[in-house]
């Protein structure tokens, strides 16, 4: 169904590699900050680590997420304008 709709609407699919770290918000925005937050933090159990991560996520300002989406849109445009080539930092 999706293919038929895309074909009839003359929509072309953008071909990107299955994993693009430059386009993965979890990599370029979220995990980098999380790793910085957890630096020096030692958890004795998985549950303790999970609790710390959940607390960190809940304490984030909503603007953090808006900024991540803004950066993602910028990277999408940059990738598109580079004809699908990898986007540098």
UniProtKB/TrEMBL annotation:
Output the Gene3D superfamilies linked to this UniProt entry: Ribonuclease H-like superfamily/Ribonuclease H
- What superkingdom does the record give? Eukaryota
Molecular functions (GO terms)? nucleic acid binding
Q: Which InterPro entries match?
A: RNaseH_sf, Transposase-MT_Hybrid
PANTHER family according to UniProt: MARINER MOS1 TRANSPOSASE-LIKE PROTEIN
The name under which this protein is listed is Mariner Mos1 transposase
């Amino acid at each position: 169904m999706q293919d038929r709709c895309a074909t009839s609407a003359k929509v072309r699919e953008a071909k990107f590699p299955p994993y693009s770290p430059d386009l993965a918000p979890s990599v370029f925005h979220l995990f980098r900050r999380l790793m910085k937050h957890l630096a020096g933090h030692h958890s004795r159990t998985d549950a303790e680590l999970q609790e710390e991560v959940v607390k960190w996520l809940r304490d984030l300002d909503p603007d953090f997420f808006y900024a991540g989406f803004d950066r993602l849109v910028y990277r999408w445009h940059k990738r598109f304008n580079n004809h699908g080539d990898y986007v540098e930092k």
